[in-house]
Write a structure and sequence with these properties.
By secondary structure, the protein is an alpha/beta fold. The chain has eleven helices and six strands. It starts with 11 loop residues before the first strand and ends in a 5-residue tail after the last helix.
């Protein structure tokens, strides 16, 4: 997508990279994609949403430094560390501009999430942030957490190539923020506690709805889309389906253990959002 007009004064950014440094370089070794797959597979096998494993993987403590949300010059510096950081900031700005009027029209209070960059490991309101978990949304502090090293792994090792594949990732996490603001995520968590046997199936609904919301955002900004963007997004959705991750890890696909949906389901709901440009279409998953 052609997004290059973010206003650093209008977004909240927190930078936990390099002990607070916002300069390129000086980053540690990368966590391999194998670690990411192991973490995701472990989550699938034990019926746990990967986001709930944050802080438990390897019992490693997060860095002790605390950084506050930035705007203005500081946020601009953090966004310009590298191309991926700048892309994420442009995406966040566009997502805010797209969804705020939707909330206003529905009479629902809107609060923009914060975007948190970290390298290898950081801290979140949900516990330790780790590269092995991939990008995630923390409802406790309404933060979207991104280790930008993940995108190189996604491109190189998962076959999810293209700029829009990265746009799709943050738009999906933003979808979880929408669910937090509308109360849908709390409703689903309540249903999961009441009926543990349906916990995974309910988790799949949340994830597919977030995929659908990502597609709606893209459709509402269709004039910014570039050739190949839709294909790039659908390819990324295919690459991170539960069945594909299990198969690529040499594990048997077990539908009852899925937490995010199959590749076909994730592509289907991303496409539905893209084709409709209507968030009401995504609500069908919660009926």
């Amino acid at each position: 997508m052609r997004l290059d007009d973010f206003d650093p004064n209008a977004i909240n950014v927190e930078d936990q990279r390099g002990g607070g440094s916002r300069l390129p370089g000086g980053r540690g070794g990368q966590v391999g994609c194998g670690t990411l797959v192991i973490a995701l597979i472990a989550a699938l096998v034990f019926g746990v949403d990967p986001s709930q494993m944050i802080g438990g993987l390897e019992q490693i403590q997060a860095p002790s430094q605390q950084t506050s949300a930035q705007s203005g010059a500081e946020a601009g510096d953090s966004c310009r560390v590298d191309a991926n950081s700048l892309q994420m900031c442009n995406d966040l700005s566009s997502l805010n501009k797209t969804w705020q009027p939707v909330f206003a029209a529905a009479g629902i209070p809107f609060q923009a999430p914060k975007l948190v960059f970290y390298s290898q490991m950081g801290s979140s309101g949900c516990g330790t942030a780790q590269s092995a978990m991939g990008p995630f949304y923390c409802p406790q502090d309404q933060g979207i957490y991104i280790d930008t090293d993940f995108f190189a792994q996604m491109d190189r090792e998962m076959g999810a190539k293209g700029k829009f594949a990265r746009d799709y990732v943050i738009a999906h996490e933003y979808g979880h923020h929408i669910q937090k603001l509308t109360g849908v995520s709390d409703q689903i968590r309540s249903l999961q506690s009441q009926n543990p046997r349906q916990a995974n199936a309910l988790s799949v609904r949340l994830e597919l709805q977030a995929d659908c919301y990502a597609g709606v955002w893209a459709a509402k900004n269709r004039d910014r889309l570039e050739p190949g963007d839709m294909e790039s997004g659908l390819n990324a959705a295919n690459a991170i389906g539960d069945d594909t991750l299990l198969r690529n890890a040499g594990r048997r696909a077990s539908p009852e253990q899925y937490t995010h949906g199959t590749s076909a389901q994730r592509m289907e709901w991303l496409r539905k959002g893209m084709n409709s440009a209507d968030d009401a279409v995504c609500d069908a998953l919660m009926r």
